[in-house]
């Protein structure tokens, strides 16, 4: 009796433990296989990057160039774009790399975007990946902000990417392949005080590209929205203020932000793994995104205190 009980225990112990471990192991293995199977390389792919002469755009240019992409770099300043091209050319690489093309235009002027798109399409005849990166930041109190500034930020951050995407989209639909990436922000998911124009433009961006993703999936196209937190770039120095002048200050939050190289690598990963929505932020901002949905009253309370604190700092 005693013996048979012990025997049964041993049998059940042998059965459940390894079975559970085996199942978990199998699931992990399947996940890994799935990831590898869906992983795509950007080698030889035609990749367009806007805002490529500085900050995150320039880092994306480095990362995608090193991965063997055929780049088309866009920006307002031909000289600075050319400097980026020269910088990239000097690196030796184990894989085949290509000298990028450049297309110079002002993304915030939607009347020039369609001719710019034609020029982009002429470089290699098609576009595989469009990375809408260019953008401008804003700092200011709504009470002191001209409506024209609200509109200008929207032109660059929202209508610019929308116009360029819609100009490139038909060529992707014709080929039944293509990937559209947009660099949004955590502020596209939650608003924080004194960033009205920026947050609003990024919320609009998130909404538009979520719609686009749903509409073009049946046509074989991919859409990725990347939402980083603060990145260590000149974005805050170049930010506009309520009267349209330059902010000119490197914020502490920006100086302590993520390394643009890490963000650029995450963009490459999002493209290779066809990730749909990527939040690249620390625990606190990520928690705030959930709080806004699950406990809005507390979120509003926290933002109001933050506004009072920032207002006090500005007064001093
Ligand atoms: C940021 O601005 C400074 C000063 O204008 C400049 O020297 C630096 O190269 C810029 N950095 C980037 C990443 O564009
Ligand atoms: C937009 O581009 C057009 C054509 O080049 C130009 O005539 C117009 O002045 C530009 N608008 C702005 C606001 O720069």
From TrEMBL:
Q: Name one GO biological process term.
A: lipid metabolic process
At the top level, the lineage of the source is: Eukaryota
GO terms under cellular component: cytoplasm; membrane
Chain ranges of the Ketoreductase domain: 45-234
The record's keywords, sorted A to Z, are: Membrane, NAD, NADP, Oxidoreductase, Transmembrane, Transmembrane helix
InterPro entries, alphabetized: KR_dom, NAD(P)-bd_dom_sf, Sc_DH/Rdtase_CS, SDR_fam
Molecular-function GO terms, alphabetical: oxidoreductase activity, acting on the CH-OH group of donors, NAD or NADP as acceptor
Show the stretches that span the lipid bilayer: 12-33
Annotated function: Putative oxidoreductase.
Q: Which family does it belong to?
A: Belongs to the short-chain dehydrogenases/reductases (SDR) family.
List, alphabetically, the PANTHER family matched: DEHYDROGENASE/REDUCTASE SDR FAMILY MEMBER 7B (PTHR44196), DEHYDROGENASE_REDUCTASE SDR FAMILY MEMBER 7B (PTHR44196:SF1)
**Entry protein name:** Dehydrogenase/reductase SDR family member 7B
Q: According to the entry, what is the taxonomic lineage of the organism? A: Eukaryota, Metazoa, Chordata, Craniata, Vertebrata
């Amino acid at each position: 009796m005693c013996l048979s009980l012990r025997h049964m225990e041993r049998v059940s112990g042998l059965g459940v433990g390894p079975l559970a471990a085996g199942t978990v192991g199998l699931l992990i293995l399947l996940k890994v296989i799935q990831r590898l199977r869906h992983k795509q390389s950007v080698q030889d792919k035609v990749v367009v990057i806007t805002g490529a002469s500085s900050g995150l755009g320039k880092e994306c240019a480095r990362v995608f160039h090193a991965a063997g992409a055929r780049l088309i770099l866009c920006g307002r300043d031909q000289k600075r774009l050319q400097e980026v091209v020269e910088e990239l050319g000097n690196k030796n690489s184990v894989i085949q790399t290509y000298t990028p093309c450049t297309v110079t235009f002002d993304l915030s002027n939607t009347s020039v975007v369609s001719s710019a798109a034609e020029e982009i399409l002429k470089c290699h005849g098609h576009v595989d990946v469009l990375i809408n990166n260019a953008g401008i930041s804003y700092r200011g109190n709504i009470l002191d902000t001209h409506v024209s500034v609200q509109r200008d930020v929207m032109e660059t951050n929202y209508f610019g990417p929308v116009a360029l995407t819609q100009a490139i989209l038909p060529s992707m639909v014709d080929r039944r392949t293509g990937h559209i990436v947009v660099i949004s922000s955590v502020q596209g998911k939650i608003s924080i005080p004194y960033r009205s124009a920026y947050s609003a433009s990024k919320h609009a961006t998130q909404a538009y590209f979520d719609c686009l993703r749903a509409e073009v999936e049946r046509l074989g196209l991919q859409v990725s929205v990347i939402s980083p937190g603060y990145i260590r770039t000149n974005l805050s120095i170049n930010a506009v203020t309520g009267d349209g002048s330059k902010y000119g200050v490197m914020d502490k939050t920006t100086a302590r932000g993520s390394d643009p190289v890490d963000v650029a690598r995450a963009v490459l990963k999002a493209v290779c793994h066809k990730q749909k929505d990527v939040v690249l932020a620390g625990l606190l901002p990520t928690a705030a995104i959930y709080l806004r949905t699950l406990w809005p009253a507390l979120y509003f309370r926290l933002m109001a205190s933050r506004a009072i604190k920032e207002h006090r700092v500005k007064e001093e």
